[in-house]
Amino acid sequence: MPPKPGRLASILRPCGLIWFSICLHWEALIQAIRRDGLVALGRPRQIRDVASAKLFSITSENFIAYENTTIVPSLVQAAKGVVLELGPGPGNQIHRYDTSLIKHVYGIEPNPQFKDDIHVKLDKHNLRDRYTVIVCGVEDSDILREKGITEGSLDAVLCIQVLCAVKDPKNVMKEVWKLLKPGGRFIFWEHGWSRNSLTTVAQACWNPAWSTFVGCDLTRNVLPDILNSGEWENPHEIEEPEEPFSLLPRIQGVLIKKAT
Predict the structure, then answer these.
(1) Mean pLDDT value across residues 158-168
(2) Nearest Cα to 69, choosing from 4, 11, 14?
(3) How far apart are the first and last CA of the chain?
(4) Model's pTM, two decimal places?
(5) Distance of CA 157 to the CA centre of its chain
(6) What is the Cα–Cα distance from 250 to 241, expressed in whole angstroms?
(7) Are the C-beta atoms of residues 185 and 79 closer than 8 Å to each other?
(8) What are the tens digits of pLDDT across the range 114-129?
(9) How far apart are CA 25 and CA 213, in angstroms?
(10) Which of 66, 89, 121, 187 could form a disulfide with 94 if both were Cys (CB 3.0 to 4.6 A apart)?
């Protein structure tokens, strides 16, 4: 595992990704104006979707390499049965599933620009017949119901760096808890607000630019949203590795939905 950066390096680290994303947003804006004229200015969501998809597609291999040094691969392999993957993005987790344990995976991705990347990886790993991409959010119950995803229908929900980016993590977690079967697993690796006071200052300073251009929030405390979504058998098993300098400190674990 590579050595962890010191405080100054950690504080400066977001700068590169933010600048790269700004350039991609500008490029997406210019392309949209050339294609659609000034009407494109009234479609900021589409421009953001295009830029974000390009950002995470280009950086996909770097993210995968970093996650290989963490607990992420073993967390993904804990998924079994019928699985809902929240926000798969470009499909960074697809190669990590234990196919001997998976019955079917539903990838819930609100950004339609990621579909091509996901399908390329599904073809590469021969998973097209066991992975369905659904362009929606987990709150879109009507769309999910059409796919057979209803309350108490899922064996597992995989959530890798997603709650930082959704509009309402509390509502997302309540939906997740409802969709899981009793005994179902919520498997997660998330980041949020640091417990180190100096690091929280750096997070607060970077957050306006980071959340605007990278698309997630550096200052959220998602742990209460996870724990308060419903009754879990093993909340004491959640891990919070000590990372005082990191602007992306993690919480991680496999929670089991308590049988009523």
Answers:
(1) 96
(2) 4
(3) 42
(4) 0.94
(5) 12
(6) 7
(7) yes
(8) 999 999 999 999 999 9
(9) 8
(10) 121
